Amino acid sequence: MGAITLKESYPVEAGDFSTAGEASGKIKRVLKKLGIDSAIVRRVAVAAYEVELNLVIHSMGGHMDLIVEPDYLQLNVHDRGPGIPDVDLAMREGYSTASDDVRTMGFGAGMGLPNMRRNANDFSIRSTVGVGTDIEMGFKL
Amino acid sequence: MTIQQFIDLTNAKLVTPEVPTDREISCGYTCDLLSWVMAHGAADMAWITVQTHMNVVAVAALMDMAAVIAPEGITFEAEVIEKAQEEGIALLECGETAYSLCGKMIAAGVPAD
Ligand SMILES: Nc1ncnc2c1ncn2[C@@H]1O[C@H](COP(=O)(O)OP(=O)(O)OP(=O)(O)O)[C@@H](O)[C@H]1O
Ligand SMILES: [Mg+2]
After folding, report:
1. What is the pLDDT of residues B13-62, one digit of tens each?
2. What is the domain range of residue B67?
3. Which atom, in ligand 1's list, is nearest to the CA of A59?
4. What pTM does this model have?
5. Which ipTM did the prediction report?
6. Which of A1, A66, B31, B46 has the fewest CB atoms below 10 angstroms from its CB?
7. Is A107 within 8 Å of chain B by CB?
8. How far apart (Å, rounded) are the C-alpha atoms in residues B43 and A24?
9. Which helix (H) or strand (E) holds A138?
């Protein structure tokens, strides 16, 4: 683990569709400014967007922490609940508990978590019902 | 194909006049499920979708897309247009179906990816 180049935290509000995607947009701009390879920036942006929208749609709010080191980037995400009862099921492509309202907006394909896992080099998820969900994603730079 | 050439070919209406239309379109895609688009999106893509809310612009911006195209006479709201202009993404409104627009783009040599 090298020295930390940058560490920032982005809060995400539950249910706020008007600003949904803004934290991911900020993360993308920060990484571009650091001169990180555009293909990697893109993968981080996809993962960040998916996790941000999950916090907006499925959680009670939380935050996304971005830690950039010379050769590794971490996106650590924590929310305040409600937690995921069956994480293996939630990780399956096509599984979604999204409401009809958000499905009408084009969410709820059940592809968000699989997109995160596909784009990150390292991916881990832990969830406790009634407490919250922690997702840690790592990207090699 | 540039955005302007797409407009000429389809009679689309550009609702973001501040966005330059000489940008080259690299590929085309159509889908209304945002996570599918996040998995398949590419830089300089032209994306045809019936979704017109704010998050469509967020997705297009994160993927560095060139344009979002609303088919079948669907229109964009003012605040969405404003956001797209800020992000430099062209928004186009078309009378034709997504199928017909894809057909024209493919015939004009715009690839799928
Ligand atoms: N932070 C979270 N808190 C609680 N439940 C979650 C959280 N993230 C995901 N889930 C659960 O896992 C399911 C699958 O998530 P995933 O992101 O893969 O799909 P989706 O959000 O339903 O649809 P999509 O991301 O394709 O729009 C969700 O429907 C939800 O039940
Ligand atoms: Mg999701």
Report:
1. 999 999 999 999 999 999 999 999 999 999 999 999 999 999 999 999 99
2. 3-107
3. 3
4. 0.95
5. 0.91
6. A1
7. yes
8. 17
9. strand A132-140
